[in-house]
Amino acid sequence: MCGIEFDQSRSLQAPDVLQSQVDFVPVRREHTEKYVQKIAIRRGTLHMIADQRLGEVRMFDIQADPQMQQPLDTLHPQFAEMEELLQAKVWWSQR
Asked: Among 41, 51, 52, 61, which residue's beta carbon has the most beta carbons within 10 A?
């Protein structure tokens, strides 16, 4: 494209599981530890968020509910699998 060679050894495909961590805890001189309070993973249209401080895990289908207003039931067929991926930190090995 445009005369630029594309490196065929690199892939443009997204990893199977995407993960993110957000932390807004201020860092102070006397309190420098960093706490991760929320972890999220995404596989396909499913998005799971774990609030470690509250002990809550919620999963959404972002195609059907892009605003993430209605969490899916914990009995959803893929809830346990997504939770296992979240806890196993498989996303770390895919970086």
From this structure: 41
